[in-house]
Amino acid sequence: MLEKYVNAAKRAQKADLVLKNATFVDVFTGKIRNGDIAVVGEKIVGTGEYEGVKEIDCTGLTVLPSYIDGHVHIESSQLSPEEFASLIVPRGTTTIIADPHEITNVCGIAGCEYISKASKNLPLDVKLQLPSCVPATPFETSGATLNGKDIEKQIKNDSFFGLGEFMNYPGVINSDPDVLRKLEAAHAAGKVIDGHAPDVSGYDLNAYLSCGIATDHECGTGEEIDEKISKGTYIHIRHGSSTQNLGNAKFITKENMRRFILCTDDRHAADLKEKGHIDDALRKLVANGLDPITAVTCATLNCAECYGLKWRGAIAPFYLADLVVVDDLKNFNAKFVIKGGKLVAKDGKPLFDTSKRYLPESVLNTVHIKKMTAQDFVLTLKGKRAKAMTIQPGSVITGCEIVEVESKNGDAQVAGTDLLKMVVVERHKMTGNIGKGLLKGYGFKGGAMGITIAHDSHNIILLGDDNESMAKAANRLKEIGGGMVIVDKATGEVHSLTLDIAGLMSSRDAESLQRDSRALIERAHAMGVKREYEAFMSLAFTSLAVIPKLKLLDTGLFDVEKFEFTDINV
User: Fold this and answer.
1) Strand ranges for 299-443 from DSSP E
2) Which segments of the chain have a pLDDT < 70?
3) For position 127, what pLDDT does the model report?
4) Which of 263, 297, 320 delimits the end of a domain?
5) Taking the model in full, what pTM does it have?
6) Residues 420 and 315 in one domain
7) What is the pLDDT of residue 194?
8) Strands 564-565 and 556-559
9) What are phi and psi of 296, to 5 degrees?
């Protein structure tokens, strides 16, 4: 093959494919260049003037290296890997660093195997990370557990590219033996380790990074970003559905720009379909004033270098011919997408078939709860003052407020107030655990809503102002095998969306899932959920016990800052 590369590169023979009359971004020098781009097999062999067996006229268009998503949970799209690819590849993303943390918390290693096998034969490179924190903390009930011994065994598997985001930063800082065993196993296997360390600084940050953790996607301030970059960390700029920090781009300078990479983390089907993927992040970053070549470099070369993806992320000889041809560096509308030298998408449409989807029994029928009644949702308080969770729009950080609550017949009364009952029902092992709390300011009224997506152990999260409606919601989730549900108390109607794969994802096609998902989300807003919240996905993070401040687990109310359970009563 090298002989063919050489002959085509020096124009002794035609290239397999040539992008003619191209304007392209040179991410190495930060310049815009002009010329043909010659491809042989899956590699770029040169730029200049070339003839190809096949040619694509790029006059008036701009060619970029295709995008790399530096950190994503496919499960959060609510789509199968095949349908996920059908939405993001036509947008220009051809490589993802995928952490199957969500499905592994439900199904164990079988979940990883499902993602891996379902991703085969797609024009999308899925670099699979072995989830590091299953469960994220020892304080909740998950469907599976991966301890240090398990990580030592699995991380050697060639199907795993690295170790997923290490959310248990207290365990690292406090030298938990099992935590350190996981990290040492990753290093022994020569695998990259992703990070997750919100608000960690100073000597604690030194301790965390001394274990060879490479990235962070939870930065909140310029000071935090500067310190982490100064200590060698790559910083993800995140563009998810409910969690976004594109504003962190204002801290990019010409001196530090090579340490920023783009990711989506958690982005659901409706946003992928309607707004886009990394391309949407790029257009928003540029609209907000970031230099477009800098933005493109963050989405390509920076990410490739961070994760050791050799010969990827640039337009140059011997680099992989993963390319996206866009209208311009403002709108980033993809006209053509090339993966490994082959045209795989055109005008926003995939040129590959996803109708045959891999679906093993090991990831189905994962909701195991008893039939629930209104009595299960009685919330007994000792007095009139209690702790209530609040949610910061666009963030996974939650707050804690002290509120006044009236009770009647031993049950907190929230109807007609700015409070809702919130519960987390364990759904993996039939323990009967029900964590109970209060949520302030969400806006929903007149029934109940619930979801089986609950980071990171993925129990059932329910909220409402009527016990009977909450019971109906829980029972419907069991009936459909997981998903999203709304119960309207006034009409008695139950509206739901089935997520049959681990209670997280759908085996349906992206088009119909996106349509029905959007309809249910709009129904939630019509019942009062404030538009500043992503109706269901904002709820999904209220049990994430590694992000401050107050969270609700199936085992009770949890103070993340103190890393211990707390009483709802004040």
Assistant:
1) 323-326, 334-339, 342-346, 349-350, 385-391, 398-404, 406-408, 411-413, 419-425, 434-440
2) none
3) 98
4) 320
5) 0.91
6) no
7) 97
8) antiparallel
9) -65, -40
